[in-house]
Write a structure and sequence with these properties.
Helices cover 31% and strands 18% of the residues. The protein is α/β, with parallel strands linked by helices. It folds into 3 domains: 344 residues, Glycoside hydrolase, family 3, N-terminal domain (TIM Barrel, Alpha-Beta Barrel), CATH 3.20.20; 203 residues, Glycoside hydrolase family 3 C-terminal domain (Rossmann fold, 3-Layer(aba) Sandwich); 116 residues, Immunoglobulin-like, CATH 2.60.40.10. The chain has an 8-stranded parallel β-sheet with strand order 9-6-5-4-3-2-1-10. Helix 8 links the parallel strand 4 and strand 5. It is globular, with a radius of gyration of 26 Å. Bound molecules: 1-deoxynojirimycin.
Length: 736
Amino acid sequence: MDKQAITNLLKKMSTKEKIYQLVQLAGGFYSEDEAVVTGPKEKLGISDEAIANVGSILNVRGAEETRALQKNYLAKSDAKIPLLFMADIINGYDTIFPIPLGQGATWNPELIKAAAAVAAEEAAVSGIHVTFSPMVDLVRDPRWGRVMESTGEDTYLNSVYAQSFVEGYQGEMIVGKNVAACVKHFAAYGAPEGGREYNTVDMSERNMREYYLPAYQAALKAGAKMVMTSFNTVDGIPATGNKWLNQDVLRKEWGFEGILISDYAAIKELEDHGIAEDAEQAAKLALEASVDIDMMTSVYAKNLEKIVVKDSEMAKLLDQSVLRILELKNELGLFENPYRGADTEKAKAVILSKDNRKLARKVVSESLVLLKNQEVLPLKSTQKIALIGPYATSPFLSGSWSFSLKTERTVTLEQAFSEVLPAENLLVAPGCLTVEPELIEASFGQYFPAEKTLFDEEGELVKALEAARKSDVVVMAIGEHYLQSGEGGSRGELTLPRVQQKLISAIKALGKPMVGVVFSGRPLELKAELPLFDSLLTVWFPGTEGGHGIADVVFGKVNPSGKLSMSFPYSVGQVPVHYNEFNTGRPLTESGHSKRFTSRYTDMPNKPLFPFGFGLSYTTFSYCDFKLSETQLVPGDKITATVEVTNSGKIAGTETVQLYIRDLVGSIVRPVKELKGFQKIFLQPKETRKVSFEITEEMLRFYTRELTYQSESGEFTVFIGSNSEVAKGINFILCK
Ligand code: NOJ
């Protein structure tokens, strides 16, 4: 359809038809099952008429399912405008990739783009039109369960990945290949107080603009078609009813013309926040804030009519919202073909294909971060290996966002190890449950899947000890339960579950070399485990090809190259701990004050256990001959920073060379370091490569005292190294 046809369509629509376009319901509302229908329907108090005419559907998957729903809908609805199908395709559709925090550790934007393209294709042939991804919320607090969905703590790195995700999903918007991206959660959802899910966010506009907003903006610059609001408050006003945030910043300042969707029930929650007296006021606030779609409540369906009838300005806003929805439907070609890419046959060929699995395996191996290695890794197939711990045999390797997870298609560690080792060299014993059964009942609620709760604790421990005794080396597959992270997965403690701590101590007492393979949806507190293990590898929730990707690294087929994109705290007491902190007036080092009166803890270090950018390799890299081409920079010009990196070890490996800059004096306080660039290089043993970065005035801009985005003349320090703690810098002056 052309633009005029869309406008004509809008003109023909009744007010009710328009309003229903703004409503999104879950697929359950269209189920034949009476119990499913009456339960949620009653809860929402939504009419049959609204259900029959909504504009979009949430989380229905599968070519057959979406086709059937669309067909039925078009037969029954009044306006006969095709439905949009949206879903959470977070780290893959059926081929599950590592969780986004793991993808963040690859420092490989091209690879992440390729993974997103695979997810998009699998989703597209299954009838999905929009993915609720990427989540680009900046995160500094690992207590928050949703850090697993973020690519980490850094503004620059998150922005780079935001672009990769959007480009991967959307590509050229080809039918059967691409889906529209919905960037979320706008804004600053990643900073809830105390790391507690859905809790208050309160930060200065400066902090938000400088660190939190750029990644959303990067996703929009890359062309993301949709934005999702966040549940939290922004300067005292919930994001979903926040006119300043959505109208002034998102639409006017940034020029976003696409669809803004509320998060799940977030419009209704304006009442719970205490900013709306009733549903009518909630609807008004949300529409005034230009929220186009009401996800999973009846607030718009039941209240917008009375609002627009008495207020022509609100009626205009309604029209604008409908137009945005129709435009996306039109862009996706739904008016010509309401089934778009949904194709059962193609789905069979594409989903979980050999190529997709191959890519997933590669992403896994690049996402693993080697935290410690005292020469135990890589293992050899001639060694007798005891694979112990709850993740030895577990197929739950995909994190909490893999709805269509097929556990039988997931490669477990046991399976992957058995492909490498002769049978007599592999001894497997889980040894304990992932978490204490009491915790399961108390905390995970109805969603907890069938893990064996009937478990012979003592018997399993005995088997694990026996296996360890017979082995040359123990690999302990440990970590948090996958439902301990994700939405609703906040934790007050970041340690391993107690049952696992007990198992580790018992095995350690045997004195065998121990390798820890740690699964998690967040940075864990590993200070107690660090001395117990000879080698430690953090593996996130790696997804469908998890076992293979981990085995590739453990047995040395792939040399690990992952680098943390979020600091691992020494203790939960340090949180939030991130590399780009301020110096304070009393820094721990170089302060004129006695140590007592410097900014520090009396009972623990200031530094995290493993900093941002950190990750070891089976080889070593040395840096030398670091220099800058100039000592002065003027706008329009550039300085080249170069360094020579040598693979000083015995095997080939990949290093991520990182560029950081510090602005020494500003009109506002500036961080001690900020990531400004990185390059991943592959080096053969003894090979040396010269790595160069260009530094321009644009890279030095920030929100100054007046909140204008610009650079300031003065002195800067450049650092190049293998993680954020690189100390040696060279200065230059910016002259404007
Ligand atoms: C709530 C989550 O916050 C959001 O990220 C997700 O996309 C929606 N639910 C839809 O499932």
